[in-house]
Specification:
Blueprint: H1 3-6, E1 8-10, H2 15-24, E2 30-33, E3 39-43, H3 45-53, H4 62-65, E4 73-74, H5 79-89, E5 93-97, E6 103-108, H6 109-112, E7 129-132, H7 143-146, E8 153-154, E9 157-158, H8 159-168, E10 174-179, H9 183-193, E11 198-203, E12 224-229, E13 232-234, H10 238-247, E14 252-262, E15 266-271, E16 275-281, E17 284-297, H11 312-321, E18 326-332, E19 336-338, H12 342-352
Parallel strand pairs: 1-2, 4-5, 7-10, 7-12, 10-11, 14-18
Antiparallel strand pairs: 2-3, 5-6, 8-9, 12-17, 13-19, 14-17, 15-16
């Protein structure tokens, strides 16, 4: 499949299929075509996300979601005008359409700006990232009888290094790591690694759950921060995540993965005395699942109790009970790599392999 063809998607395709295709495309846009292969619209991950957050059916089709007010150019386009529009809109590609509505070419940024001009770089993320790494990782035994879970190998790096590097390339240079189990090994690893970013430690004298260690940062940070488990690798646009969090004025934004499940059996619903009420043959279900990554307003850390076992899900409930805003940021299942259990770890290794 050529790069041109990889950007095309038909109207009847499922939205989740489109989300997967978008994540595989470096242009971050798809061109939607009808059954005659004529251009009818464009689709971005932002379009899909707005559809999901607006209550749209995750079994919906691309034609219901796409933007039909899209930018394209005719066959006799003027290069100077194309350059102007691409700069203004940060377009990585522009379709060339003939008089009958067929895409005859796609102009890519690197080809249009042959002088090496680059897209406007995203600003560095000026916020700290906290990696919760104090757990024993018992689901990964016997690996974790020797190594702490953050140091489990993922390719030629450790899990925590892969996670932190994904933020470092976005300009994050301030990390906090909560530690308890085999903490000296984790600290020794980073001492030897000597990364370009700063690593500070939140020491737990006893296990404090997925959120208890955050009390140590209460009153010490301003603005927003990202909190992530040490066993999840999220392939997402972190700039877009933080922008969404701030635009929605959320106190907490939870990154969720859209998961599709197929039950290969007939599902029976019963009523009193075991009488069959209905039966659904091999149903399909879609759920939004917590990935273990969050964006928090730093003032929320004041709610974390001192020296108490406390999960981030408890913080979410405490914020909601006080009338705070807790939102979600959906990503596809392929953008969430889990290394916390053996099956998921093996699947992650196969996907990265």
């Amino acid at each position: 499949m050529t790069m041109f063809e990889s950007l095309l998607i038909r109207e009847p395709r499922k939205i989740l299929e489109a989300l997967h295709q978008l994540e595989e495309s470096r242009c971050k846009i798809l061109y939607v075509i009808d059954d005659q292969e004529r251009l009818v619209g464009t689709l971005t991950d932002g379009d899909v996300r707005r559809w999901i957050l607006g209550g749209g059916d995750m079994n919906g089709i691309v034609g219901e979601v796409c933007n039909r007010s899209h930018y394209y150019v005719p066959a006799d386009y003027q290069l100077a005008e194309v350059k102007k529009k691409m700069r203004e809109g940060d377009f990585t590609s522009v379709p060339v359409v003939d008089d009958e509505g067929y895409i005859i070419d796609v102009l890519f940024w690197d080809d249009v700006f042959g002088n090496g001009e680059k897209l406007k770089p995203a600003q560095n993320l000026k916020l700290p990232v906290v990696v919760m790494a104090g757990g024993k990782g018992t689901r990964l035994a016997p690996f974790t009888s020797v190594l702490p879970k953050p140091l489990i190998p993922v390719g030629d790096k450790t899990a925590i290094e892969v996670i932190m590097n994904s933020f470092a390339v976005c300009g994050v240079d301030d990390f906090y790591v909560s530690v308890n189990y085999k903490s000296k090994l984790i600290q020794a690893y980073f001492d030897e690694l000597a990364p370009d970013y700063k690593v500070s430690y939140l020491y737990e004298d006893k296990p404090l759950g997925t959120g208890g260690a955050l009390h140590a940062l209460a009153g010490k940070l301003e603005g927003d921060l990202i909190v992530t488990n040490c066993d999840v690798i999220i392939k997402a646009d972190y700039h877009a995540l933080v922008e969404h969090h701030q635009k929605e004025n959320n106190d907490i934004t939870m990154v969720v993965s859209v998961r599709h499940f197929h039950i290969p059996y007939g599902i029976c619903d019963i009523v009193d005395n075991g009488q069959l009420f209905s039966m659904r043959e091999k149903p399909h279900y879609n759920f939004m699942v917590n990935t273990g990554m969050y964006v928090l307003r730093s003032s929320m850390l004041d709610l974390v109790p001192k020296d108490k076992f406390y999960h981030l899900t408890e913080l979410i409930e405490d914020v909601r009970s006080r009338g705070g805003r807790v939102g979600v940021y959906p990503i596809s299942d392929k953008a969430w790599l889990d290394t916390g259990e053996w099956q998921q770890y093996c699947e992650t290794m196969a996907r990265l392999g």
